[in-house]
Amino acid sequence: MKTLLFFIMVFNSINIYSYELMERYEVNSSKIYSTILFPEIKDEFLVLEMPNSINSYRVRASDIVKKFEDKNISISHENLKTILFVKKIEFNSEQIKEFIANEYLKYYPTMIILDVLVDMVSINDIDDFKISVIDLKEHFYKKSSGSFAVSFKNSDGREKRLFFKYQLKAKLQLYKAKDDISHHEMLNISKVTQELSDFQELNSKPIDSSYFDKYSAKLKIKKDRVLTENLFEIKSSIEKGDLVRAVIKSGDVELSFEAVALSSGNIGDVVKIQKSDKKVLSAKVISSELVEVK
User: Fold this and answer.
1) Which among 126, 38, 123 has a CA at the least distance from the CA of 87?
2) The listed CATH number (3.10.20.310, 3.90.198.10, 3.90.1210.10, 3.40.720.10) that belongs to domain 90-235
3) Going by CATH, does the domain composed of 243-293 fall within 2.30.30.760?
4) How far is it, in rounded angstroms, from Cα 285 to Cα 294?
5) Measured between alpha carbons, how far is 147 from 268 in angstroms, rounded to an integer?
6) I want to staple 30 with a disulfide (CB 3.0 to 4.6 A). Which of 50, 64, 268, 277 is the partner?
């Protein structure tokens, strides 16, 4: 009976804690020990060893769990499929983070930036080197994450070019379609909702309030779609096919008649119009209903 009780106590002492894995760990060494993942564990053993040539290493969560189970240690990993280990490399990332944030703000002036995470992809010693050029990819602003290169230079003129990854955490005020918007339908404030959303990916710059009552839809827009500039075109003062009043002025004499616009145009533009007798004339757009024959 005493022997059985002893084994029960030993078993319980081994499994008294259940440790939960995280999705990401920052480490100082290529060798990952149990106490790096869980400092409270008394049994220190090697869990994995990262290749020396890389800065980040992704492994299956089940492989890590098995290492601990072999030591009779219970590990929880919820729905995690993989775990990312990233080597810490000492460098001043604040200048890079500030640069990335400012570049996004140039494109999205109202963006609320919460954080910028930066990881070095290529490993190299950059002590005594200063940043000379940060090279973000073209169209970087369409997504919240990406990769980029940084050129470093020291006092002797030596240069190093290293690669980084970044993740932007930010929010953006976006307009969305309240209901379906028809092709050629004029946009106005009654047709939209506005919400503060997490910024992830946009194919085009989001619209602002200046688009209301001036722009129409290039195509049918489904309800709840984020409204971006590429979905709209400026609404012409006169559209092709519109019935307009045309005037011809000669001194104090003014002659007016109805005509059909053969082309679209805004105020100040010259468009083609057709009289009832099929004669085609050129006329300057005065308003949405009036043109002056030249």
Assistant:
1) 123
2) 3.90.1210.10
3) yes
4) 11
5) 47
6) 50
For 47, the token pair is 């869990």
Give the C-alpha distances (Å, rounded to integers) separating 277 from 143, 159, 251, 257, 264.
Answer: 56, 76, 25, 11, 21
Domain ranges of the chain: 2-87, 90-235, 243-293
In the 3-class helix/strand/coil scheme, how is 64-89 assigned residue by residue? HHHHHHCCCCEEECCCCCEEEEEECC
Q: One digit per residue, pLDDT tens: the chain, 294 residues?
A: 545 444 444 444 444 456 889 998 988 888 999 999 999 888 899 999 988 767 778 999 999 999 999 999 988 877 889 999 987 766 678 999 999 999 999 999 999 999 999 987 766 667 677 888 999 988 999 999 999 999 988 888 888 888 899 999 999 999 999 999 999 898 999 999 999 999 999 999 999 999 998 899 999 999 999 999 999 988 788 889 999 999 999 888 899 999 999 998 888 899 999 999 999 999 999 988 999 998
Cβ–Cβ under 8 Å, residues 239 and 260? no
Q: Judge whether 191 and 215 are in contact, CB under 8 Å.
A: no
* CATH of the domain spanning 2-87: 2.60.480
CA distances for 194 relative to 155, 179, 189, angstroms: 51, 13, 10
Measured CA to CA, the distance from residue 260 to residue 242 in angstroms comes to: 6
Contacting residues for 104 by C-beta, under 8 A, at least 6 apart? 111, 113, 141, 168, 170
